[in-house]
Request: fold
Amino acid sequence: MHQVFIYMVGTAGSGKTYLTKAFSEWLDFKKLDNITVNLDPGADNLPYNPDIDVRDWFTLADIMEKYGVGPNGAQIIGADLISTIAKDIKDEIEYEDSPYVIIDTPGQMELFTLRSSSDILLRMLGKENSVMVYLFDPVISKTPSGFLSLLFMCSSAIFRLNIPQIPVLAKSDLLEEHELENIIKWSRDPDALYDDLLKESEKVLSGELFHMLRELGLFRPLIPVSAITGYGMDDIYDGIQELFYGGDDLERIIY
Ligand SMILES: Nc1nc2c(ncn2[C@@H]2O[C@H](COP(=O)(O)OP(=O)(O)OP(=O)(O)O)[C@@H](O)[C@H]2O)c(=O)[nH]1
Ligand SMILES: [Mg+2]
Reply:
């Protein structure tokens, strides 16, 4: 495999940008050539210096002025405009010719997962070489219902983009030991999650729906990571290696 595209995807503030920086630095440390791509036209004070930056073509401020819209409308237009520069981005990536391409996606997750523009970019760069690192927000993941909601969002990203996924528990340094253990347990054991959901509230998803989630293989062990301590970067790397070089069946990992 010549190049691997690693998309950082997660809800707003889940840690995509800092994980992009941390993973790139970890690869640097391992002397593995990599580049970073910023797809967020509204990014302010990025903690890393992207090799390729959507803001070189347009920024949120440009769009607000040109189209006379507010920041939310501008984010949507910005996401849609990505398709118009997909070929330029591809050319720049090819020019850089680096084996690992880390892609930091815009703040609001749906801007990336639901707008068709992302699919155009993904197809252009090559879905067969792509993986999504899906970040679970640690604060939302603390409660059973919060965790389940993120699991649904993560599943929707899989169905929409149709590329394999490495699910990670972001900012794990912020969690107490027992909180971390609980979340990892839920990701491995649907029955434990179901029991804890019952304790949280009497009204729980129907058993059938829960069973379906399990049957679809949507419960997968979360990898705890921290962009601050560097914890888990090797596990993300191992996950990528296993996907692309381990001879694993991609279909099995996607679904
Ligand atoms: N403690 C801790 N804080 C983190 C970590 N990663 C990110 N943060 C903090 O969380 C905040 C959000 O992180 P970002 O990486 O900007 O998150 P994002 O998903 O890119 O956010 P948007 O693009 O704005 O939606 C920042 O203030 C970071 O300092 C981490 O691993 N540990
Ligand atoms: Mg960001």
Observations:
- The chain has one domain: 4-254.
- DSSP finds eleven helices and seven strands in the chain.
